[in-house]
């Protein structure tokens, strides 16, 4: 694979190097309180992995950051700018935040190459030739350049998810959100996607990753955030979290998912 570096930041400078900041974020779905006074800051170049039991609010947290879900109260800022509610400002800010979902969400009727070039051409006004050249670099980076002219249905799940990562990178985002990116994959395809993500981490991409893949958290995370019942229960570096968790809830969670 070619080594394609992460694009340099073009966002305004922000105090302390923080790229993403959530302060006192609250979210309800009806009577269900899914996010409870969430405070979280992510620095530029940092990889933060969010783990926790099902229903703990991990995916909702991820989706609020580019306003796929609204919040009830609190603030979310990206590169020093508060997340707009709607309109062009929101679209502009969303272009700084890539997202890779559980399902690949590729356009079924477009080729792999067309899926990756569509955003830069339509949203950023990149010339078609330049968008194609960059897309081929990124498809090579994630190991699927030889699939560029196929339709998504002709690819394996792991290949489709790697195309989805290339599509996110094509917008030159400041931050990429990963919401359980391997949960829909067959076991033998998981590592090929995780290897790409580890490479992005090494390249300095800022990443927030919701996952059950504890090996990835140990291998690539700068910080592990453990959530339960909508709250951030604790956060620390991976070595500390996996060997000496502070909270009883984290200890119980790890005792159930880690080999003894």
UniProtKB/TrEMBL annotation:
Give its localization: Cell membrane
Catalytic activity reads: a polar amino acid(out) + ATP + H2O = a polar amino acid(in) + ADP + phosphate + H(+)
The family annotation for this protein states: Belongs to the ABC transporter superfamily.
Q: Which residues form the ABC transporter domain?
A: 20-254
Which protein, by its recorded name, is this? ABC-type polar-amino-acid transporter
List the Pfam families hit by this protein, alphabetically: ABC_tran
* Keyword Glycosyltransferase among UniProt keywords: no
Q: What is its main location?
A: membrane
Q: Which SUPFAM superfamilies match?
A: P-loop containing nucleoside triphosphate hydrolases (SSF52540)
| Gene Ontology MF terms | ATP binding; ATP hydrolysis activity; ATPase-coupled polar amino acid-transporter activity
Membrane association type: Peripheral membrane protein
Q: What is its EC number?
A: 7.4.2.1
Task: Give the residues annotated as coiled coil.
Answer: none
Annotated source species: Cellulomonas composti
* Record keywords: Amino-acid transport, ATP-binding, Cell membrane, Membrane, Nucleotide-binding, Transport
């Amino acid at each position: 694979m070619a080594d394609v570096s992460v694009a340099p930041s073009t966002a305004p400078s922000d105090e302390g190097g923080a790229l993403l900041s959530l302060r006192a974020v609250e979210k309800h779905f009806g009577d269900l309180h899914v996010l409870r006074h969430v405070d979280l800051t992510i620095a530029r170049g940092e990889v933060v992995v969010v783990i926790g039991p099902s229903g703990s609010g991990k995916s909702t947290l991820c989706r609020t950051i580019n306003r796929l879900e609204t919040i009830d109260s609190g603030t979310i800022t990206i590169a020093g700018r508060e997340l707009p509610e709607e309109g062009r400002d929101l679209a502009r800010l969303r272009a700084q935040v890539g997202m890779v979902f559980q399902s690949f969400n590729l356009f079924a009727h477009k080729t792999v190459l067309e899926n990756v070039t569509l955003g830069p051409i339509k949203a950023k006004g990149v010339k078609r030739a330049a968008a194609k050249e960059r897309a081929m670099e990124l498809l090579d980076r994630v190991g699927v350049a030889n699939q560029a002219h196929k339709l998504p249905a002709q690819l394996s799940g792991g290949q489709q998810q790697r195309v989805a990562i290339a599509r996110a990178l094509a917008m030159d985002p400041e931050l990429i959100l990963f919401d359980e990116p391997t949960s829909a994959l067959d076991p033998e395809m998981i590592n090929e996607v995780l290897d790409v993500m580890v490479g992005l981490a090494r390249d300095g991409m800022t990443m927030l990753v919701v996952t059950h893949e504890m090996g990835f958290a140990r291998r690539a995370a700068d910080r592990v955030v453990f959530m339960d019942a909508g709250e951030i229960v604790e956060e620390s570096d991976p070595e500390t979290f996996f060997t000496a968790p502070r909270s009883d809830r984290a200890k119980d969670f790890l005792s159930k998912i880690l080999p003894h």
